[in-house]
Design goal:
The chain is α+β, with helices and mostly antiparallel strands. About 50% of the residues lie in helices and about 15% in strands. Strands 1-2-5-4-3 form a 5-stranded mixed beta sheet, sandwiched between helices. The longest helix is centred in the C-terminal third of the chain and has 17 residues.
């Protein structure tokens, strides 16, 4: 799905993730896009993503459609190296963009630092990634 196609299917979207926040940008990571949709746009977009081979990211779900209808904050989808973080929550979108701005401004090259920032801004979580997340995540 191109950025132009995505623009026609959602309220707004923005490039996010380490390719945007880090200088120099990593070349071995996926491209992340934050997407804000209305409930009507969300339903149509999800159907089109499945048709184009996108998979739901995250935990295994018994009934993906039932799960998608109950999402409060976001759902992520991936296809090859493209990750879409889709939300209907304007406040979540704004917080995510604020965290992206700060990560970019501070040039947080360390992934654990970026995770801590996003946890704090999005969820008001005070975590030390090195202590609170599995070692495989903290060491990436």
């Amino acid at each position: 799905m191109t950025m132009q196609e995505l623009s026609e299917k959602c309220t707004k979207h923005a490039l996010v993730g380490s390719r945007v926040t880090c200088d120099p940008a990593p070349t071995d990571t996926d491209q992340d896009v934050l997407v804000l949709c209305s409930p009507e746009q969300f339903g149509r977009l999800i159907g089109q993503l499945f048709e184009r081979g996108f998979d739901i990211d995250g935990s295994a779900i018994n009934d993906p459609i039932d799960h998608l209808n109950s999402i409060d904050t976001f759902q992520s989808f991936s296809n090859d190296d493209l990750n879409l973080i889709i939300t209907q929550d304007v406040a979540f979108y704004r917080k995510f963009m604020a965290a992206t701005f700060v990560a970019k401004r501070l040039n947080l090259l360390n992934k654990t630092d970026r995770i801590c920032l996003f946890q704090a801004v999005l969820y008001a979580n005070e975590i030390d990634v090195r202590e609170d997340l599995p070692s495989t995540v903290a060491e990436e």
